[in-house]
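Collaborator request, handled under Task 6.
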Amino acid sequence: MGEAKWQALSEEVAAWPRGQRSALVTNFLRDLIVSGEIPPGERINERVLTERLGISRTPLREAFKILDGEGLVSIRPNAGATVVRLSLEDVEDSLEVLIGLESIGAEHAVARATTAMIDEIAQLDARMCEAFERGALMEYFHINQEIHQKIIDAAQNVALSRVYAGESARIRRFRFAGNRNRERWSRAVCEHAQILDALRQREGALLRELLRAHHRAGWKIAREALEHPEAIS
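Structure tokens returned to the collaborator:
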């Protein structure tokens, strides 16, 4: 990361109330892990981060605990935090779980979603499209993940939302890889328009199949990108 970006982030952290700094640091580290700037298996250097961000170790270690709970890092005594390494097969297994959860959620969402819930998802979709037009990949990805969670939340099943959020966080960085392919990214935007329309029309079976196809198409490209990073365009 460039010096200017480090400086901007340090200033942003300094402006936050002390009790909230861990949240900003958590988001920062999560993005570095998801984007691959901190690769799987790498130890996160506490000393470098505290010096560059101008913070104490307390918010950083709080961030490590949150990311450990999400399955993105592993904390070991006297060794600090290391980015978790998952095999592609592990990710594929988790993705099948997510597809299953969304299949359940789709049917309930169309039956239970309030108009306000659907309107909120539509507003997120519009923001996501704007991010796509600007080429803001990480911003797009954050909104994309929020949309999927909101669809599950619309099913109004607390247990379903909790399990989905946990499993989704665990493989977030692998799903991000697919959007680096511009052609796939463009198709994903179109697929989201169809998903939103099915939700608005309250067509549960169609929404279920659209979500299933959307995930599998994305994972096909993501897996190819992860196996052959030099081919990402």
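The cover message to the collaborator said: "The two ends are 21 Å apart (CA to CA). The first strand starts at residue 73 and ends at 76. Please let us know whether this matches your experimental observations."
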